[in-house]
Structures are given as structure tokens and as C-alpha cells.
């Protein structure tokens, strides 16, 4: 294993995080908040560790899949440990465990919060937790690839480990150029949403933080009542952009190339639109008697877009919706957005592959002579992709079950415990009952919070990069046991 290149990249990650912290520091200066010192101290710590690591250029910069997965896992753990420091040092979140939970929820674009009074936080802290969504949405390592020269053979391992979905495709031949294009699209859509919200009369600070949460599909709000206080127009803008950020970014590249027919033929996009439309219609009909027809469509569209893209904003407390509508929202939690988007969940493409695999197996059992090939977008699904999807699903269900068992020790009601795991593992944010859109995660034990922190990281990094360090640790322990003298 090339340890030197791992330390080298981690060093650069810390330097980048220090640079990102300059923005909330400026925010603190603008609003004359004393919390600025917490960011300045953290910046110094990041640079104190990061600069020496990044100055030692490794002679051998070649690494493979194992190092790529390990780099991604360690990078997200390190930026979370450092990112929690401003909350803790400033005293805005007195418990470091809670501060770590909050920032992991931010970076993984989950949006689950331990805060009981969000509006009591300083502006710079609210900015940092929302900005963490924007950083984590596209991925800090994808940002590193965009600014840092690296061969395609190396960068593809990082891209595959950090990017959501069953497979990662290059938009253009060079991976670094792909990363730059992705960030250009990401930044362009972010700026467009900010402008539209400002045109709707939203204050600049609100427009920035809400857009960060929308772009990263994170959902940290700056109001205790989420998006409820804002106008119908502003909510509609957020609805549209939540949906758009849940689409595979490759589709936007095709649109920029004016390949409209090719983009519209994308099978995952068709499924995504169908699922969203169906859910909106069903929920609108179900809650129509409560809200009125047009209000029902508005709130159903917002919540469906929010949940399937794993954003987590809310315009209503859907805890009070009929059971049928809540069940639909829970199902959407698991489905998630498209591969190659900033959304979480299992992903629409994986669901499609699993359903096609079931249909293929039934066809094989009933018509053994016929040989059918699994295809998506007219292309054959490789055995490797089908295998990885099946293994992902098995690992997903195992982590979900174990997490639910541990969290149930807190003796919350079943719905709260079940949706707590669903919301953190799928990077949603709110669940139902005690952790609904107007609730929070503060009443869980530290053990449960650590389990949910693991789930948030596992969900954002597609499970396997997080399991690799654990697997390597177990292997080392076993090897040490074997060499112990009798």
C-alpha cells in the first residue's frame, strides 16, 4: 500500500478545508460575531497538519483501488473531525459528539440535526453547516481532482469511491476535465437558484444557505420551521431545484452539447420522473381533503422532491399526513435520487437493475431456453455491475438491520427508530414521529449517534469505502494474533 500518497492527499484535503473555512470567517466578521476565533483556530490547526503533509511529495504517486477507497474514507473522517471544531470551540454546540454529528450530517448532505433551537446559532455557524452541504454534495475529493493534476489511472479510483451510483463514467476522456465540468455545472446551477430566490425577495443570507442545502441535497434550514416561513414562489423555486439536483449530471452535459434526444432517452431519468410524478399525484389525492387541491399539489410536490432527492426540507409537518402518504415518503427515502447526482438513497439505477434482475430470473425459470440480456439505455449491464449492485444491497440491508437493533436500545417508538436509520443511512435528514421535520435527534444516546454517524458516512460513500478501513483493521488484528508467541 502506498502510504505516502495517502498522507499527501490528506494533507491537501486539510488545506482545502482551511480555505473553505475562510467564507464563514468572513460571515462572522460581517455580522461582528465573536465566533470568528473558533474558525481561525481551526484553520491554523488544519494548516499546521496539512502543510507538512502536502509538502512531502511522494516519489511514487501511483495507487490502486484499495488506496483510492481508503483515501476517500479517511478524507471524509478527517474533514469531519476538523469541521466539528468551530461548533465545539465556540461553545455553540457544547458536546463534541453532537458537534461531530452535526458536521457529518452536513458534509454527507444528510441534514439530520441535534439542534433544538436553530435560530439561536450565530450566522457564521449557520453558514458553515449549510456550506458543508455544498462541499459534500459534489465531494471534496472531486474538487481536489478538479484543481490538482493527477493521472486518470489514479483519479478514477477516487472518483469511483466518492461519486454516488453503481458505476462512474467519464463525461470526457480525461477524468480531471470531467471533474472540472461537473463543478462548472454544479456552480452554475447554484448561482442560478440564488439569483431566482433573490428575485423573489429572499434575503441574501437566506438565499445562500438554502441554495447550499438544495444544491447538496442536504436540507439544513436556518429556521426552526424549515422552509415554512417563505413565500409560495420561493418554495416553488426550491422544489424545482431539488428535483434538478437529483438528476444525473451527465444528463446536463448532454443538454449543454444539445444532445436533447439522447438525454431524454436515458432510462434512469424516465424512471425518476415517473416515480416523482406518481408520488405527487397519489399524495395530492390523499391529502386533498386536508389542504385543498392546489395547496395539496404544491406541498406534495415539495415533499416528494425533498425526500426522493434526500434533501429533507419541509413546507409542512408531514407527521400529520395520512398513513398512506407517509408510507409513500418512507418508500421514497429508500429509492433516492439518480446515480451521478448529489442525492442519496439506494439510487434509481440500482432499483431498476434489481427489478430487471428479478424479471430476468423469473423469465429464466419459466423459459429456460430463452437467453435474455440485462440492458439499461440499450447497453448491456456487465456482470461486474450486476454483481456490485447485488453485493451493495446485501451490505446495505445488513448495516440497516444492525443499526436498527443498536438504536432500538434507546427505547424510542418503532417508527422513530426505523426512520432514524432510514434517514441517516439514506442521507435524508428528517424521519417520522420524534425526528419529524419539526423534531431533532438530540434525545438519542451517544452510542446511537455514533451508529448514525457511521450510517451517514456509509450512505454518502456507498458503503464499501467505509467498510474497507474496518476490514483492513480486522485483518491486521488477525495477523498479529497469528504471530503472538506461545
TrEMBL record:
GO CC entries: plasma membrane
Has the keyword Cell inner membrane been applied to this entry? Answer: yes
User: What Gene Ontology molecular function terms does this protein carry?
Assistant: metal ion binding; potassium:chloride symporter activity
Q: Where is it predominantly found?
A: membrane
Transmembrane parts of this sequence: 7-31, 37-56, 68-89, 131-150, 180-199, 236-257, 269-288, 327-346, 389-409, 450-474
| Superkingdom to which the source organism belongs | Bacteria
Tell me where in or outside the cell this protein is found.
Cell inner membrane
Q: How does it sit in the membrane?
A: Multi-pass membrane protein
Where along the chain is K(+) bound? 109-110, 218, 310-311, 427
Has keyword Membrane?
yes
Q: Which UniProt keywords apply?
A: Cell inner membrane, Cell membrane, Ion transport, Membrane, Metal-binding, Potassium, Potassium transport, Transmembrane, Transmembrane helix, Transport
Name the family: Belongs to the TrkH potassium transport family.
Instruction: Please report the name of this protein according to its UniProt entry.
Output: Putative membrane protein
Species the sequence originates in: Herbinix luporum
Amino acid at each position: 500500500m502506498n502510504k505516502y500518497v495517502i498522507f499527501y492527499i490528506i494533507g491537501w484535503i486539510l488545506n482545502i478545508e482551511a480555505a473553505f473555512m475562510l467564507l464563514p470567517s468572513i460571515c462572522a466578521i460581517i455580522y461582528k460575531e465573536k465566533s470568528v476565533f473558533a474558525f481561525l483556530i481551526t484553520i491554523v490547526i488544519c494548516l499546521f497538519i496539512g502543510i507538512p503533509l502536502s509538502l512531502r511529495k511522494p516519489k511514487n504517486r501511483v495507487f490502486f483501488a484499495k488506496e483510492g477507497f481508503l483515501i476517500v474514507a479517511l478524507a471524509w473522517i478527517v474533514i469531519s473531525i476538523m469541521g466539528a471544531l468551530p461548533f465545539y470551540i465556540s461553545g455553540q454546540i457544547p458536546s463534541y459528539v453532537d458537534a461531530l454529528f452535526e458536521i457529518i450530517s452536513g458534509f454527507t448532505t444528510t441534514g439530520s440535526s441535534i439542534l433544538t433551537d436553530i435560530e439561536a446559532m450565530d450566522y457564521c455557524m449557520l453558514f458553515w453547516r449549510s456550506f458543508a452541504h455544498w462541499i459534500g454534495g459534489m465531494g471534496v475529493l472531486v474538487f481536489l481532482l478538479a484543481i490538482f493534476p493527477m493521472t486518470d489511472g489514479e483519479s478514477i479510483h477516487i472518483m469511483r469511491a466518492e461519486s454516488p451510483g453503481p458505476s462512474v463514467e467519464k463525461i470526457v476522456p480525461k477524468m480531471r476535465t470531467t471533474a472540472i465540468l461537473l463543478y462548472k455545472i454544479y456552480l452554475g446551477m447554484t448561482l442560478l437558484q440564488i439569483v431566482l430566490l433573490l428575485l423573489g425577495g429572499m434575503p441574501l443570507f437566506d438565499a445562500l444557505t438554502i441554495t447550499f442545502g438544495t444544491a447538496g441535497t442536504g436540507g439544513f434550514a436556518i429556521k426552526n420551521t424549515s422552509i415554512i416561513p417563505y413565500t409560495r414562489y420561493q418554495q416553488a423555486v426550491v422544489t424545482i431545484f431539488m428535483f434538478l439536483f437529483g438528476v444525473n449530471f451527465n444528463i446536463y452535459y448532454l443538454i449543454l452539447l444539445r444532445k436533447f434526444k439522447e438525454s431524454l432517452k436515458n432510462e434512469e431519468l424516465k424512471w425518476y420522473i415517473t416515480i416523482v410524478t406518481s408520488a405527487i399525484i397519489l399524495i395530492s389525492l390523499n391529502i386533498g381533503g386536508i389542504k385543498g387541491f392546489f395547496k395539496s399539489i404544491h406541498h406534495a410536490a415539495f415533499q416528494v422532491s425533498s425526500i426522493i432527492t434526500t434533501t429533507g426540507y419541509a413546507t409542512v409537518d408531514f407527521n400529520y399526513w395520512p398513513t398512506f402518504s407517509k408510507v409513500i415518503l418512507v418508500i421514497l427515502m429508500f429509492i433516492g435520487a439518480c446515480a451521478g447526482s448529489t442525492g442519496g438513497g439506494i439510487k434509481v439505477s440500482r432499483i431498476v437493475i434489481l427489478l430487471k434482475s428479478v424479471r430476468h430470473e423469473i423469465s429464466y425459470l419459466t423459459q429456460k431456453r430463452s437467453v435474455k440480456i440485462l440492458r439499461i439505455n440499450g447497453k448491456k449491464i456487465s456482470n461486474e455491475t450486476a454483481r456490485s449492485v447485488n453485493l451493495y444491497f446485501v451490505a446495505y440491508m445488513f448495516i440497516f438491520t444492525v443499526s436498527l437493533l443498536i438504536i432500538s436500545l434507546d427505547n424510542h417508538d418503532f417508527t422513530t427508530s426505523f426512520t432514524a436509520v432510514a434517514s441517516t443511512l439514506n442521507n435524508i435528514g428528517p424521519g417520522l414521529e420524534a425526528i419529524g421535520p419539526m423534531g431533532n435527534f438530540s434525545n438519542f444516546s451517544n452510542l446511537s449517534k455514533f451508529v448514525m454517524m457511521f450510517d451517514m458516512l456509509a450512505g454518502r460513500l456507498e458503503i464499501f469505502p467505509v467498510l474497507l478501513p474496518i476490514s483492513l483493521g480486522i485483518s491486521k488484528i488477525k495477523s498479529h494474533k497469528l504471530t503472538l508467541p506461545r
